[in-house]
UniProtKB/TrEMBL annotation:
Its main location: membrane. It comes from the Eukaryota. The keyword Chaperone does not apply. GO terms for cellular component: cytoplasm; membrane. Belongs to the nonaspanin (TM9SF) (TC 9.A.2) family. The chain crosses the membrane at residues 133-155, 196-223, 229-254, 266-290, 302-325, 356-379, 385-413, 425-444, 456-485. The keyword Ligase does not apply. Keywords: Membrane, Signal, Transmembrane, Transmembrane helix. This is Transmembrane 9 superfamily member. The gene is TM9SF2. It is a multi-pass membrane protein. It is found in: Membrane. GO terms for biological process: protein localization to membrane.
């Protein structure tokens, strides 16, 4: 074969737990106990004392990869990788999704390598952490710049506007209203396609909570690289269990938009975005089946995923939607006029499309360096372990999306354009478009992938990530603007 494959050695459950055993042994003299999060300690001993515990540490391999293909194969897929033992350890859902078919290894442990140095060859192959710190500092500079701009608007310009508006009401010969106060009778007018927007916001809330909890657990060490597949398993389980918040948010916002087709709303929340992701994933799985790759999901696992979706996530979405529709609609601080106000002619910079395109630049600038390492871990088979950096970038991304969207929303309101709902969602959500462009650049400049199947798989999975990222960032921008608009119109006096 022309392709070069490398076997990625992974520790078994016993080997992964050896660190905890050693630490327990050392700390036992101090009457203290310690073990790695998520890994149960296992006792080992010499062969002559076998009755006290295991005496052999088994080694396992996960899959065969190639830099020219995204198709992983099982360790025994080729004649030169023969294994006598049929004993295979259990695999979690995340390992199955990534094609991590665990097999026993014919090679023995290198006892010259100390346990404390077992990850050194991986860490030394990773880029230096100074690049990570540069990414954080770059993101912080952007956040400080945006925070300064928003603070200037909130504390100076906006404060003066509110004081001037409130003062005009006490003057008999008050001048005509102007600026963002002029659209107070239309600011909470229901948006067009409110059904679709509410569904997107429900799914985005589900993704946001799932991402936050997953990264938080990873920072605590429960989803370490040693526990393969745990990150994906945690994310899938959380997504299934968070159907209730998705249904509640979608139903509550749709009711606030004046919608009455609650059955259509809850059905779209439960099936639209998850259905798009599942359809894309199923097509990719068919390609993997056709290529004989170990990443192809077995039929039983596919049925189990569908069962989790239909039997757990969908009922929870209906429960959340029930409570969302049962609750009273969100009360707005100002009344909405019956006749919509005509929007004046807008300049180039206050038109929808230029504002949306500009709004996604700064959030993407906060994450593009970290995005490079994430894509390397997915497509270039590098180990990603800096979840602390990733969680910090996650927080910075939330702040940046919120501040950039609020800033542009204020400019549009001052131009008497009150259509902020979809614009706020698309402004921060457009970060996903820059992510997609970067993924295309990464494919042609960094990867050596050849073959039609591998190319389709790369862009198919990239579209799934782009959709998830679009819903995630768009939801942040909408709720940030919703809070901002509610806040400023609740403190100004209107007739």
């Amino acid at each position: 074969m022309s392709r070069r494959f490398s076997a990625a050695m992974v520790p078994s459950r016993g080997l992964r737990a050896l660190c905890s055993v050693l630490l327990v042994g050392v700390s036992a003299r101090l009457a203290l106990g310690f073990y790695l999060p998520g890994l149960a300690p296992v006792s080992f001993c010499e062969e002559k004392e076998r009755q006290r515990g295991a005496s052999e540490i088994e080694l396992f391999v996960n899959r065969l990869d190639s830099v020219e293909s995204v198709l992983p194969y099982e360790y025994r897929a080729f004649d030169f990788c023969t294994v006598e033992s049929e004993n295979r350890p259990s695999e979690n859902l995340g390992q199955v999704l990534f094609g991590e078919r665990i097999e026993p290894s014919p090679y023995k442990e290198n006892k010259e390598i100390r346990w404390a140095s077992r990850w050194d060859y991986i860490l030394e192959s990773m880029p230096h952490t100074n690049i990570q710190w540069f990414s954080i500092m770059n993101s912080l500079v952007i956040v400080l710049f945006l925070s300064g701009m928003v603070a200037m608007i909130m504390l100076r310009t906006l404060h003066k506007d509110i004081a001037r508006y409130n003062q005009m009401d006490s003057v008999e010969d008050a001048q005509e209203e102007f600026g963002w106060k002029l659209v107070h009778g239309d600011i909470f007018r229901p948006p067009r396609k409110g059904m679709l927007l509410s569904v997107f916001l429900g799914s985005g809330t589900q993704i946001f909570i799932m991402t936050f909890i997953t990264l938080f657990l990873a920072c605590l060490g429960f989803l370490s690289p040693a526990n393969r597949g745990a990150l994906m398993t945690c994310a899938v389980v959380l997504w299934v269990l968070l159907g209730a918040p998705a249904g509640y948010v979608a139903a509550r916002l749709y009711k606030s938009f004046g919608g009455e087709k609650w059955k259509t709303n809850v059905l779209l929340t439960a099936f639209l975005c998850p259905g798009i992701v599942f359809t894309d994933f199923f097509v990719m799985n068919l390609i993997l089946w056709g290529e004989g790759s170990s990443a192809a999901m077995p039929f039983g696992t596919l049925v189990a995923i569908l069962a989790l979706w239909f039997c757990v996530s969908v009922p929870l979405t209906f429960v959340g939607a029930y409570f969302g529709f049962k609750k009273r609609g969100i009360e707005h601080p100002v009344r909405t006029n019956q006749i919509p106000r005509q929007i004046p002619e807008q300049s180039f910079y206050t038109r929808p499309l230029p504002g949306i395109i500009m709004g996604g630049i700064l959030p993407f600038g906060c994450i593009f360096i970290q995005l490079f390492f994430i894509l390397n871990s997915i497509w270039s088979h590098q180990m990603y372990y800096m979840f602390g950096f990733l969680f910090l970038v996650f927080i910075i991304l939330v702040i940046t999306c919120s501040e950039a969207t609020i800033l542009l929303c204020y400019f549009h309101l001052c131009a008497e354009d009150y259509h902020w709902q979809w614009r706020s969602f698309l402004t921060s959500g457009f970060t996903a478009a820059y992510f997609l462009v970067y993924a295309i650049h990464y494919f042609f400049s960094k990867l050596q992938i050849t073959g039609l199947a591998s190319t389709i798989l790369y862009f198919g999975y990239t579209m799934i990530m782009a959709l998830i990222f679009f819903l995630f960032t768009g939801t942040i921008g909408f709720f940030a603007c919703f809070w901002f608009v509610t806040k400023i119109y609740s403190v100004v006096k209107v007739d």
